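Researcher: Before we compare anything, I want clean individual predictions. No alignment, no superposition, just each chain on its own. First chain goes here; please echo the sequence and then give the C-alpha cells.
Model: Echoing the first chain and its structure:
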Amino acid sequence: MHNRKMWALSLVLVLVMAMLSACSMGESMANTCEPEISTDLALEAQNAGMAGMAAGKVEWNESHLSSFLTVLLQQNTGGNFPVDAIHACVEPGGNIALHVQLKDDVLLGGDSLSVSGTIGVADGSVSVDLTEVSGNGFVASSALLAPINAQVNAALAGAITGLPVSVETTDDTLTISLGGM
C-alpha cells in the first residue's frame, strides 16, 4: 500500500514539475507598439476586410487591426468587457504580438497581457503559432501553448471563406491574399 502511494505521489510531482517548467517569472520579450485606436479606424478596417473578401486581398496596418479587434470585442461583449485596448504589433517574417491593456482591478499584479507568435498558412487556412504568453509577471512558453494553438487554429480554419494563398507581414502591415473566390 505504501509503495502505491509513493508512486502516485511521484507521478503527481513529476506532472507538476513538467507544468511549472513551461512557466517562468519575467516580462514578455515581444515587441511593443502604440497604434492609434478609434471607432473610425475600426470601420475602415471592416470595410477593407469586406472589400478584400471580394477582391481577394486584405491589407491592414497596425492601427486598423488594433482598432478592429478592440471595437469588435467591445461591441460584442457589452459593458462588462475587461479590456481597454488591444495593440496589434506586426513585424516582418510573420511575427505578430498582441498586447491587451486591461481595465483597472482585473488582475491584482498588473494591467496587461501579451501574446506573441507567428501567423501564416497551414492546410489552406490562416494559422497562428503562439510562442509566448505573459501577464502578471509570469511568462508561459510554447509547451503550455499547444492546446491554445489548437483551439485558435480550429477557430481560424472556418473564419475565411476563400483559400488563403499567402499571409505576409511587414513592419506595420498584415496582408492576407485569398484564392478560390
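Researcher: Okay. Second chain, same rules.
Model: Second chain and its structure:
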Amino acid sequence: MYQQSNTKQIVIGVDPGIHTGYAVLAVTNSLVVLECLLKLSGDRTLIAKQILEATEKFKCSTKELRIYVEEANIRGSASMKKHGAFVNRVYGEYIHGFLAGHGYSVTMITPMRWKGNTPKSVKAGKLLDRYTVQRFVPPNDLEKLRAGKKSRWEDPVDALGIADYGVRFPVNVLDSKRIPA
C-alpha cells in the first residue's frame, strides 16, 4: 500500500490498446509528482490484471484515488489500422469494466477532452517539461518523443497526459458518460 503521508490524492491515467500506457501522479499541497510510468503489452485480460495490480499498490483508504481511461474515438484516420481505434476502444471498455468490477470508479475521457487538437510532439514536450520522466524513459526515447518521432514510450506519455488532465481539471465520475459500479 502507498505510504506517502503528505499525498492528498492519486490520479491514474490509462491509454488503452495492445500497447497500453499507465501513469500515476501523486498530488500534495504544493506539487504533483510522477510516481509510476509503465508500458504494458499483451491481451486485454493480461493488461487489465497488470493495471489492477499496479493500482492496488497506490490504494490508500485516507486518500482520494481517481482513474481516467481514454475512450478511443472512432475516426477515419485511425479506425481501420491494425491497432486502431476499434481495438483501443475494446481494450478501454474492458479495462473500465474490469476496474469497476473491483470497486474502482473510472472516468472515460476522450482524446479531444484531454489533449484537444494539440500535435503529439507539442503535448509530449509540455509533459516532459512538467514531469521528471527520466527515471522511467530511456534518453534516446526522450529525444524521439520531443522530436515527434515514433517511440515505444508514446502510450505511457499519453497516459501521463490523461492523468495530468485529471489533476488540472478534475472530472466527477458522474459527469462522465458512464456511472461507476
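Researcher: What stands out in the second chain?
Model: Residues 128 and 146 are 8 Å apart (CA to CA). Additionally, Confidence is low (pLDDT under 50) at residues 174-181.
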